[in-house]
Structure formats: C-alpha cells, structure tokens
Amino acid sequence: MKILVTGGAGFIGSAVVRYILKDTKHSVVNLDKLTYAGNLESIPSELHSPRYAFEQADICNAAELDRVLSQHQPDVIMHLAAESHVDRSIDGPGEFIQTNLVGTYTLLEAARKYWSVLDASRKIAFRFHHISTDEVYGDLPHPDDVLDVGRSLDRQIGSGTELPLFTEKTSYAPSSPYSASKADSDHLVRAWLRTYGVPTLVTNCSNNYGSYHFPEKLVPHIILNALAGKALPVYGDGSQIRDWLYVEDHARALFKVVTEGEVGETYNIGGHNEKRNIEVVHMLCDLLEELVPQKPDGVAAYRDLITYVKDRPGHDVRYAIDASKMTKELDWNPEETFETGMKKTVKWYLDNKDWWQRVLNGDYQLDRLGK
Description:
Blueprint: E1 2-6, H1 11-23, E2 27-32, E3 52-56, H2 62-72, E4 76-79, H3 86-91, H4 93-116, H5 120-125, E5 127-133, H6 143-146, H7 153-158, H8 177-196, E6 200-205, E7 207-209, H9 218-227, E8 232-235, E9 241-246, H10 247-260, E10 266-269, E11 274-276, H11 277-291, E12 306-309, H12 324-330, H13 338-351, H14 353-361, H15 363-368
Parallel strand pairs: 1-2, 1-4, 2-3, 4-5, 5-6, 6-10, 7-9, 8-12
Antiparallel strand pairs: 9-11
C-alpha cells in the first residue's frame, strides 16, 4: 500500500511518516509546502529508502496535486497539512482560512477526480483520512465551576464525579479562527462523502506533545526557555485544562483508523491525561530539576521562571476526549502515560540540541531552500 501524507514534515505528520517507515512495510509519499514549521530533518535520513518519497507542494495548488496523485498513484491519503497555532490565527486568520479550508477543498477535489477513475478494486479500497482537532467542539465546563475549588484535578476525576467529555456526537462550537477553519474543513470532508461518495474518515485529537515539536508550542517552549534561563509564560492563571496525547501514540492511532476504520465514521483520539496548563509547566520544571540540576546562572529553581501573562482572547477553559470508540472498535489505547511521555520528551530535547538549535536559528529553512 502507498500512503500520501500531506503535512508530512510537520509535527504530527512527521510522526506518521516515521511510524509507516519504521513499523510497517508500506510506502509513503510526504507532501509538504515547507512553511515555517515544516522541517524535513524530522524524518531522519536513516529512514529514507525506496519506500519514501518527498514532494514539495502546496495543497492549494490544484495542478500540483493532480501531478502528484497521477505520478505516485497512492492508495490512501492522510491529510494533516494545516496551520495549527491559535495565537497566529488570532493575529492573522486569513492564512488559516486559505490553508485549512481552501486547501482542504482543493485536495478533496483532486482526490475526487483521482478516485473516480481508479479501477473497481482500488476504488473500493481507497481512503481519504482527514486529521482534525478537538478544538472544533469548543470547550467544556471547568471542574472549578462545577466541583470543589482547591481540590486537585486528579482527585476530582477520581472522586467518581462525572465530568463531560467530547464524544464523536458532540456539537461543533469553535472558539478561535484556527478551530473554526478546522471545523469548516471537517464539514467539507463529510460533504464530499455524502454528495460524491468519496470514501472519507475523520479523526479529532487532543493536544499532542513529543519529539520534533516546533518550539512555539507550549511543551518545547517551556523546556527550551527553562534551559536558557528565560521566563516561562503561562496564560492567565494556568487553570486551562487539556487532554495530553503523546505524538507517537497518535501516529499509531491514525494508522489504525486509515487501515481498519469504517468509511464515514469519526474517531476521537485522546491520551486520557487531563491536566491544567500550570500542572504541565510544573512537571516540566520538576523533570528538568531531575535531569539538568545545573541551572543557568542566576536561576535557583526552574519554577522561579514561571511568569503569568495576559490570557489569550476567547481562551477555551477545558478540552477532554472520550476515546472509548477507538478502544472498543479498533483496539487502540495510548501506550504512554503522561509521566512517561513527558519524561521521554524532555530527554529527547536534551539529546537533540542540534535539531532544535537549527530550528531556533532558522538554519533548516536556509538548507531546504538551497541558501
């Protein structure tokens, strides 16, 4: 089987490409525009083989998509190419509409034309898998609003009190330009199934973390700032809750869906790790205390670097995924706990300074452009 992965040089996309090359015998075509967050160094050279091909292309370019599909003849499309940073979407929503909405439409049309002329057996087997986010659902009630203020989140969840979760039937209520653009693209994908018969699937995931994560996101930003002795910015009071999913677990889940999932279905993928943002920052500080006890000059404790900043406009207070459908129907569960996954992540950044230093310096961008 040959799998076309859009956005395969991004954080989650590269994890999917690595998984296919390391843990399966299938071939993969990595299609990526190589925007600021796309980094081919996220696909280590030792994984390159005749089963791997790269195409630098924009999903908004219909002619290029037609060429890539005709040339490589994929059996499956896994669509991960997207603009995904909420703060950037607030500052400049137009790029998110263009990539996430117009780009998905352009890719769907190219896929429809390609799929419509496949022979009968390949047409039946073809899949278009759209990878989306739990942010399309909006947010959920915060435990501080419905339970005892001052108790830890773990104790409240463990107390038997039922807190609502996102399910595959949850109504959409996006809060940011980013999540609105992803919600719209989800609707397009389902419409192309119903109207044209294109065999599509949709997955909605919780917050990912892990290796090769672009430094603007919370986990790597905190790690790298702490190592440099810089402030660790936390929005508001840090009480916002997210469900954290290790990216390698997500890659396994996505492969399960595209190879075993049922056409027309939606699958929510979560890590079963609801944590307040401040808890995440505290854990990262404590892991660095353990792994890098020699701190930058003038820093007595990593937690001392925590700085509370003005909250993001329209900031969702809580996300939490019910991933039971993935367990029941596809026999998938995350392998990493929050503790083991975060420790692996911190160790990866400590062991791969060359990778993130090149990202911070912009050197990888110069190389990819031949400058």
